[in-house]
Amino acid sequence: MSTRARIDFPSRVGVWWSGDTWAMPAAQQVARDIEEMGYGSLFLPETVAKECLTQSAAYLSATERLVIGTGIANIHVRLPSAAEAGARTLTALHPGRFVLGLGVSHGPLVERGMGGVYTKPLTTMRDYLDRMAAVPEAIEPGVGRPPRLLAALGPKMIELSGAHADGAHPYLVTPEHTRFTRDILGPDKWIVSEQAVSLDPDEAARMAAAHGHLEFYSGLPNYRNSWLRQGFEESDLVRGGSDRLARALVGMGGVERAAAALVAHLDAGADHVVVQVVDGGMGADPRPALRELAGALGL
């Protein structure tokens, strides 16, 4: 009998999108449109801009079936008790529709952008999860522990996501890495993989969008180490990534090939895959591309 946490995804393909620069009423309309297209989720980031639990509440209230997930809630932003209590409240109001994705973030963001201290990511995350688990049941009684996923790239963090959480939310990984994650976690833990795509009809523009997407991440040690573990080389880790890295991490070359990149993660063991449209940069309107993809995916 499966012991996995409850997440009621209406379909196996969702969306990863940042609405940080959007007024919330307009962002809520994007969420409604995503739901109407047949996508099963909307995952949102948290860096140094909008607070993700507040945004999640707004998206949940604006939709009826769409699962809302944090991809990820930065553990350096709030106390463990606040993260747990906030997630319980959202789960109490919208059962089966909220996923708390948690991550240790990155040293440069935490120390330079937030003035915090970044050290021993695995120990820090384990302690954070233990302190979340210590929140008494009297807080939102009857709700239980909300489903939580970890931003897990390396084997030790993946193992922790199975032992102390409900699975993993891999980001900027190949389908082979999704399969690697499934091998570690076994069948009863959730895997929600992210996949970037570009649907620009011009090849040069697609590559420019892919490199632009990787520009920020290619300067972060966590991702650089992850890509080396995935079989890439130092020569692939130039700022913006090599063409080889861009083609491996961004689905492009037409809507059918982009859709195939998403399905590859499902075939590799993901329960759910979230698509990030990189055309126009983070925060651009994803809906035109999502409508094309929805047709190709049969949503």
From TrEMBL:
Lineage: superkingdom: Bacteria
Pfam family, one: Bac_luciferase
Domain Luciferase-like residues, every copy: 25-235
Protein name listed in UniProt: LLM class F420-dependent oxidoreductase
CDD domains attached to this UniProt entry: Tetrahydromethanopterin_reductase
Gene3D superfamilies: Luciferase-like domain
PANTHER family noted in UniProt: CONSERVED HYPOTHETICAL ALANINE AND PROLINE-RICH PROTEIN, PTHR43244
Coiled coil, from the record: none
Listed GO MF terms: oxidoreductase activity, acting on paired donors, with incorporation or reduction of molecular oxygen
